[in-house]
Amino acid sequence: MDLATIAAAVAGAVGSRVAFHPLDTIRTLQQTSVATGYRLPFAQYWRGLPAAVGFTTPAFTIYLVSYRQAKKVLEPYLGVDTANYVVSGAIAELTSSVLWTPMEVVKGNMQLKSESKAGGTWAMIKHMYQTQGLKGFYRGYWVGLAVFTPHSIVWWYTYEKMKTYFKSTNALNASIIDSTATLQDLTASQYAFASAVSGTASGTASNFLDVLKTRQQLAIAEEVSRLRPDDQMGLWKVAKNLISEVGIMRAMF
Questions:
Q1: Which of residues 113, 131, 149 is at a domain's end?
Q2: Rama region for 178: left / alpha / beta (φ>0; ψ in -120 to 50; rest)
Q3: What confidence tens digit (pLDDT) does each residue in 168-213 have?
Q4: In whole angstroms, what is the distance from residue 29 CA to residue 23 CA?
Q5: 198 lies in the same domain as 229
Q6: What is the rounded radius of gyration, in angstroms, for the C-alpha atoms of the chain?
Q7: Structurally, how many domains does the chain consist of?
Q8: What distance in Å separates the CA atoms of residue 24 and residue 30, rounded to the nearest whole number?
Q9: Host domain of residue 191
Q10: Under 8 Å between Cβ of 99 and 58
Q11: Shared domain check, 157 and 92
């Protein structure tokens, strides 16, 4: 991949992280049941942002380059359609998860902290390393793969299919005017719509496992262990606690 494409993609990833971090904080608090409302002290909306931005840049670079490179290498074997999207999306997630998981754990721990107990991101990282060691940064690693591998597959499959549909539509419209027209580039609004549909589909498909992943990753955080100390017993216990707390339908969404 050329550097301009990588830079543009990373800028988009970091920009969206910054813009929507308050919603991410609310989601973390709601998923763990530490808080159920939307009204927080202003500073708490932005807790964990340095960790999110710091990890996103290298993680998303690895993710995107892995996807594009895998897609290119696999093209002679899988073609340029469904199978390639699925396998390349899975490879991208597997290669980049070594950075996504620590980001989620550090960010989530920061987001749970109240303003009165707030410390810096680096202080949180040192505290986690001193009390849990390196393995503390990879809590929920396997369930994270179980969440984000299908999430990535659904996202890329939907996105690529939407792009193909729009290109065909654009080419059809252009051919009415010019019989030599071929596939046409997408407009900005078409890219945006394809991304929105992909995000909705993948987020819906993986939401239940995402809640379990968040609860397992943050099970030993003081704010969570005070509510559900037995969450630390493992994923099955986390799932049972979640369903007994809110019911199966609310747990799914």
A1: 131
A2: beta
A3: 888 777 766 554 444 568 888 999 999 999 999 999 999 999 999 9
A4: 10
A5: yes
A6: 20
A7: 2
A8: 10
A9: 140-252
A10: yes
A11: no
